[in-house]
Specification:
The structure holds three protein chains of three kinds. Chain A is built from twelve helices and no strands. By secondary structure, chain A is mostly helical. In chain A, α1 runs antiparallel to α12, α5 packs across α7 (about 170-200) and α6 packs across α7. The model of chain A has no long low-confidence stretch (mean pLDDT about 85). Mean pLDDT of chain C is about 85; it is low at about 5-40. The relative contact order of chain C is 0.18. Chain C is an alpha+beta fold. Classes of the chains: A mainly alpha, B mainly alpha, C alpha+beta. Chains in contact: A-B, A-C, B-C.
């Protein structure tokens, strides 16, 4: 087991290296300099050259990359080219907000989807089932920014129920959290229902029933645990998805998270920030996947992870 | 929405393999029969057919050009005219769905936008299908270095949050000459294909790996059937069911990607009308009138729902036991 | 100063930027009219104000900043040697005790410092603090974007341009010692490379804000955080939640007396539509409307009463490549510049803005020349000018490429102009959309300069020098390839003239030459509509500054809401 974990962690190194290489190449492929901001008030070319030189972005790209990787090994993500802060500072002040938003959304998604999925499976083809499946289909289909725009229009502009500006109080967080969680909620509902249906039909459930065990004991004691296995496996990616996928919600609701910062940094050619955020995301996703694989091995003894 | 395009974990991929290694229904007719009994899937197919017709006939049925904003007397068209159900004070009967912030006819833009959505839905998925199936088949069948490279590539591409990967490709390359071809359509196709082909390849590889140990393949081999023929005649048809389901779900997620990128302002170039770009532009005015943003949003939602229904129907039809 | 679009992902294009800047920065009325809401009402001693800053400032270091939002933060926390008179936008003493003493050759400027000005931590503001500020801007290690404004100071350019990685400390010190900034106990003296009558206007700018050594030492790279970001202006920064908000409180020790506003919060909302919703929700007290919002404002009596037209600091124009046929003939250029109806352009297409019926310099700025009629809309005169062009009837006058930075909005503008030229003088121009990044590169280089293109200029500081010399003098930024010896001579002469009246006259002469030689056809002056809640009073804004003005901030107050 330990060897397996170590091997997976080692494999992470080349993966992150290629992620860095690809991102670096892409970021630098974009024409224009970070200091080439506005054609209506162009900086004098001498100023642009001076700043490029100062930040070392006048060097050949491969040299810049080697330099970057060297710093990365010392865990130095560099300084933002356009902001007065280091990438480390920006990430450490903005990422917790995204993480909080993502985790809140995850908890909400679980709190709704697990009961909903189980109930629809138990009452298959009932009205409840159809309603929850309709919700699940719409939730996985309709883009979150569409829901967000409509929600802002209804709740903030027309009904004036919630504030638009700011972050930190429950009133501010409720809409972004709900809207961010909808996709995951819908998807988890589908998974829960499907695996619950699968579990109910197993032979051992039939055996348990025929032994005369009460329905409650059968459901809770026998089926739920097995039904949760597929759900557990997608929790990792779902968490990573919620944390890395909140950038549109952050932008629309002016949430001071890292996603909004990242979108801004791409358009402004802030190479170190683009790189830093991407590496963070890649790392998170890798860790999430690894965790799930390990957990999967623990809860389902049939799967041997340490092959 | 993050979960739709989220990368699959390896465990989940294993789960997927579990599903698809179950015995396939041999009769395609059986599947078709089940599909056509599914009312939601039929409704979805009808909506898709309508949208496709709209896309194909756009030049004929759209009342105006999607990029024109001039009326004949050389004056700019009324901006932000309301649709026919909106505030009559701002309704202009020549534009039934109203006009956008610079006076373009929204109905015409919606119709032309169907074109881009359909293209972005189908073309990249076609590329993904061809590339993913060929490479996945080769990797699964021959193993060895092809397989090793595929698996390592998958690791790298899965390490990117895929929507963000798309964003960075679009944002950086769209301002180069490549990004300019056909207003950015080609770049959009390529970017979506690059980000998504490995998923398809992995899927096919998994199928092939389990199939190639089966007796009928061994039998074919033992009587000297050439590799290429085994792949095309035996492996391909037998691994097609999950591939079809993946394609059916790939189309709406490609459309969603276009809409998201368009909404972020890094999709297809203006003035081309796409639903995503329309939502972006409509959002700028939504506190004046919500319709320029809501109408394309509704169109996207309906078409994506239709594809999802069809996808669900296909999955149920091809593998009735896995009902997600 | 540079204005940034509020939509983070819009690559700033001239018109896109214009439509968008207004959210991040509201420019004020030309002649300093205390706004309509100024009169009446009792100041709430605990009054709070909430405005939108747009996106998070990249930096609020006065010696590095360049964007409108950043500058508006700096101008509320610091005050320079000079400030601008909101009525005329001419420099008047602020922390300087009196008008600067200028040597006969106009190359040495001496400012005496007021002795009662303190930083918000109580430390007195000295000449050395100002010298430190100016020197920091020139310091190559600071990496400031606006240092070029100070290149008029002897030695600043040489020092600033040094490669800090290659130069030895001794070389850097030697260059630093040559910079013409000297301070003593009560005064600071600047030696300039050449006479500059406009130096008083530069002395108001953020690049010369005073800073204490203590702040820099304690704060280091992070001295712009609230603990060490200590200025001498009407407000102090008390909280900065990155990407969320900045909170300012009044500086009770401000030398003009404590400001009337207790607290001023600036939130960061990128999306204009969201900011508008927030304004209507009473979460923002001020909002800069975009063209899209006009219908809502017009149809809502309450909003309409809160709206006010405010001119901006930019002029947009159609540039001509004067090196290439047919634009090398002044008659072609003049014909085009007289062939479109600027008033109709505003009502039909632009919606927000003012027609450029006048010269290059927009209303509200020193040097605005409303009687400059060289490019007045006149189809008959335009046709006559075209007939005089040596290309009249020649193929050069057909299919002229009109290059622009592609966006839906710019497209409408260019197509409107295309139609006007076709109708009024029968010239066919071909719209040629180019991606904004590529466009920036195209217009930068003489070899790739398009035949016809759209550009704008936004002022750094309100002085004719920053318009005429900086943009159209043949040795400076000029994008059109136009060179006129008389214009060059007149602008240089005026730049060096310390007699303001004489200089104004010379500039006007130069400006008229510019219009009648038409290397560019003036299109429109940018402007905006600002919505202000009725409880916000005492606002004085000008054409050069951002939200709520920069020059009378201490007078702003709010009455009790409701």
């Amino acid at each position: 087991m330990l060897r397996y974990v170590i091997r997976r962690l080692l494999l992470l190194i080349p993966t992150l290296f290629f992620v860095a290489l690809i991102t670096f190449a892409l970021a630098h492929a974009a024409p224009g300099s970070p200091f080439d901001k506005n054609e209506n008030r162009p900086l004098p070319q001498s100023t642009i050259d001076r700043l490029n030189r100062l930040y070392g972005i006048d060097k050949p790209i491969h040299e810049q990359f080697i330099l970057y990787m060297g710093n990365l090994l010392r865990l130095d993500l560099g300084s933002s080219l356009v902001k007065d802060r280091t990438v480390g500072e920006i990430i450490s002040s903005q990422f917790p907000v995204s993480a909080q938003l993502g985790l809140q959304a995850l908890l909400l998604a679980l709190a709704v989807s697990l009961p909903l999925g189980v109930i629809s499976a138990l009452k298959q083809n009932s009205g409840v089932d159809y309603a929850s499946m309709l919700f699940a289909t719409i939730g996985t289909t309709v883009p979150s920014f569409v829901i967000a725009i409509v929600a802002i229009y209804i709740f903030a502009v027309n009904l004036k129920l919630i504030p638009i500006v700011g972050w930190g109080t429950p009133k501010h967080m409720i809409l972004p959290t709900i809207i961010l969680s909808l996709g995951a909620m819908a998807f988890l509902t589908r998974i829960t229902r499907a695996s619950m249906l699968e579990a109910i039909r197993q032979d051992y459930v039939r055996t348990a029933r025929s032994k005369g065990l009460s329905e409650q004991v059968v459901i809770v004691g026998h089926t739920l645990k097995n039904a949760m296995i597929p759900v557990a496996t997608i929790l990792g990616p779902a968490t990573a998805g919620l944390i890395t996928g909140s950038f549109i919600i952050e932008t629309l609701f002016s949430v001071p998270g890292i996603g909004r910062e990242f979108i801004l940094s791409i358009n402004r050619r802030d190479y170190p920030l683009i790189m830093g955020v991407f590496l963070l995301y890649a790392f998170l996703i890798a860790v999430a996947n690894l965790t799930v694989d390990l957990v999967y091995g623990l809860i389902d003894p049939r799967i041997k992870v340490a092959k | 929405m993050a979960t739709i395009t989220r990368p699959l974990s390896s465990a989940e991929r294993a789960a997927e393999l579990n599903v698809i290694t179950r015995k396939q229904r041999s009769l395609w007719q059986d599947a078709m029969y089940r599909l056509f009994r599914n009312k939601a899937a039929i409704a979805g197919l009808i909506v898709i057919a309508l949208a496709a017709t709209m896309a194909i006939l756009a030049p004929v049925i759209a009342p105006y050009s999607p990029t024109d904003y001039f009326t004949n007397n050389g004056k700019a068209a009324p901006t932000l005219a309301e649709p026919f159900w909106g505030d009559p004070k701002y309704y202009d009967p020549t534009h039934v769905f109203g006009t956008d912030a610079i006076g373009r006819d929204i109905l015409s833009r919606l119709i032309w936008g169907a074109r881009v959505s359909m293209l972005v839905g189908f073309v990249p998925v076609a590329i993904i299908f061809v590339v993913g199936v060929s490479i996945g088949m080769a990797a699964g069948f021959y193993g060895g270095w092809t397989d090793q490279i595929l698996m390592r590539l998958t690791d790298v591409i899965y390490a990117f949050p895929d929507l963000l990967f798309l964003i960075i490709i679009m944002a950086t390359v769209r301002n180069t000459d490549i990004g300019n071809i056909m207003g950015g359509l080609i770049l959009m196709f390529t970017a979506i294909a690059i980000v998504n082909w490995v998923g398809m390849a992995r899927l096919v590889r998994g199928q092939v790996l389990s199939l190639k140990e089966k007796e009928f393949i061994e039998a074919a081999r033992s009587i000297g059937v050439p590799d290429r023929r085994i792949m095309i005649r035996h492996l391909l048809p037998n691994s097609l069911a999950p591939v079809i389901v993946a394609v059916a779900f790939g189309i709406p997620s490609a459309m969603l990607a276009e809409a998201t990128l368009g909404f972020l302002g890094i999709g297809i170039r203006p003035p081309t009308a796409t639903w995503g770009v329309m939502i972006n532009e409509g959002f700028q005015v939504f506190s004046t009138t919500p319709w320029p943003a809501i109408l394309p949003a509704v169109f996207i939602a309906i078409v994506m729902l239709a594809f999802t229904f069809v996808g669900d129907g296909l999955r149920d039809a091809l593998d009735p036991r896995m009902k997600i | 100063m540079t204005q940034r679009g509020k939509a983070p992902w819009s690559f700033v294009a001239p018109f896109v930027a214009l439509a968008l800047v207004i959210g991040a920065c509201q420019a004020g009325p030309s002649t300093a009219q205390p706004s309509a809401t100024a009169a009446g009402g009792q100041a709430d001693p605990n009054g709070e104000l909430v405005t939108n800053l747009g996106s998070e400032p990249d930096t609020i270091d006065p010696h590095k900043a360049s964007f409108v939002g950043e500058i508006s933060v700096i101008m509320s926390v610091f005050e320079g040697l000079m400030t601008l008179d909101p009525k005329t936008l001419k420099p008047v003493p602020a922390v300087a005790a009196k008008e600067p003493e200028v040597s006969a050759d106009a190359k040495t400027w001496k400012f005496t410092i007021r002795d009662n000005v303190k930083f918000s931590d109580g430390a007195p503001v000295t000449a050395a603090d100002f010298a430190r500020g100016f020197m920091r801007t020139c310091d190559p290690k600071t990496a400031g974007e606006y240092s070029f404004v100070l290149y008029i100071i002897a030695g600043c350019e040489a020092w600033n341009g040094m490669d800090v990685k290659k130069a030895t400390p001794a070389e850097l010190d030697a260059a630093k010692a040559k910079v013409g900034i000297k301070s003593d106990a009560t005064s600071i003296t600047f030696s300039l490379t050449e006479p500059a009558g406009y130096f008083g206007s530069i002395a108001y700018m953020w690049v010369g804000m005073p800073v204490q050594q203590k702040s820099l030492d304690t704060g280091g790279d992070k001295w712009t955080e609230p603990a060490t970001y200590i200025g001498n202006g009407p407000f102090k920064l008390t909280e900065w939640k990155h990407n969320e908000k900045m909170v300012f409180e009044r500086n009770d020790g401000y030398w003009r007396g404590a400001p009337k506003l207790k607290k001023w919060t600036r939130v960061m909302i990128n999306e204009g539509a969201v900011a508008f919703a927030a304004y209507r929700n009473n979460e923002l007290d001020v909002f800069g409307a975009a063209a899209e919002d006009l219908r809502t404002i017009d149809s809502d009596a309450e909003l309409k009463a809160q709206a006010q037209d405010v001119p901006g600091s930019c002029t947009f124009y159609i540039g001509f490549n004067t090196r290439k046929a047919p634009m090398d003939d002044v008659n072609t250029r003049l014909a085009i510049s007289k062939a479109f109806d600027r008033n109709a352009f505003i009502t039909d297409v632009q919606k927000v803005g003012a027609p450029a019926n006048g010269g290059f310099i927009p209303p509200g700025f020193p040097g605005y020349d409303k009687d400059d009629s060289a490019q007045k809309y006149d189809p008959a005169a335009a046709k006559a000018a075209l007939a005089k062009s040596k290309y009249s009837g020649k193929p050069e006058l057909t299919n002229i490429k009109f290059t622009y930075s592609s966006s839906a909005r710019t497209k409408t503008r260019v197509e409107w102009l295309q139609q006007q030229l076709k109708t009024n003088i029968g010239i066919d121009v071909v719209p040629d959309p180019v991606d904004s990044t590529a466009y920036t590169q195209l217009v930068k280089k003489p070899e790739t300069l398009p035949l016809m293109f759209i550009l704008g200029w936004c002022a750094d500081f309100p002085h004719q020098q920053n318009w005429l010399t900086t943009v159209f003098h043949s040795t400076s930024l000029s994008r059109t390839g136009w060179k006129n010896d008389t214009f060059d001579k007149l602008t240089k002469q005026a730049d060096q003239d310390t007699n303001k009246e004489n200089a104004d006259k010379t500039y006007q002469e130069a400006s008229r030459i510019l219009s009648s030689e038409a290397p560019a056809a003036w299109l429109y002056y940018n402007a905006g509509k600002t919505l202000t809640k009725p409880w916000v009073k005492g606002v004085t804004t000008t054409a050069i500054d951002a939200a709520l003005g920069q020059f009378r901030l201490w007078e702003i107050f709010v009455t009790k809401k409701g």
